[in-house]
Amino acid sequence: MAETQVALPTLVHPVTPPRKVPKPKNGRERKARLDRILGELDKLFPAATCALRHENAWQLLVATILSAQCTDERVNKVTPELFRKYPTLEDFANAPQEELAGEIRSTGFFNNKAKSLIGAARKILADYKGQVPRTMDELLSVPGAARKTANVVLGTAYGIASGVVVDTHVQRIAQRLDLTKNTDPVKIEEDLMKILPEEKWILFSHQVIHFGRQICIARKPRCPSCPLDAVCYAKDKTLA
Ligand code: SF4
Q: What is the mean pLDDT of residues 6-25?
């Protein structure tokens, strides 16, 4: 599915310097601030979803494995032809590894990814009757599927809230918004799972990924257009 592009406000505002943004002093203020963040994300991206094109859980698993160290846009260019050539799990399981690697070359790390895709198809056929499993533990037994991949597949393909997807955008923005003090993705996920309502786990990740691509950009966040300016005391806000 294509990424939701929001129309940013045309009138930019002077950015509030980080030191002038009051930090929450107690649990009630922290909760109010989090509600404000979630509310603004809902307004910006009410129906955010995964940008990786797919028609079923297996295709999403393939696309997510390919998206490691690669943009969703690039993956979306590769997968249509890939799924035409290998329409079933059996086709992937029997694919010649070198040939498959050549076909996914542009996504980077193609030898490892080809090995993972073939291994994943074989594992799912052998142990899960050809169905992508629906639990975190089972998915983690599939080659190429670490916790982030499993969360993407469970949340987007099955609507199962197993955790919070922590990619580079979620990691950066959770830190900028002081929703975590950690740098390790697993610990960041644990922090987010503690403070977010479970029914928000899936949507929150998608919203933050869109937010990170369009507004809270890594190198130069677009703070003058950001509706979270008033609650953001990130040191790297762009004041100009
Ligand atoms: S865009 Fe700027 S104001 Fe908005 S969350 Fe990111 S750093 Fe904070």
A: 83
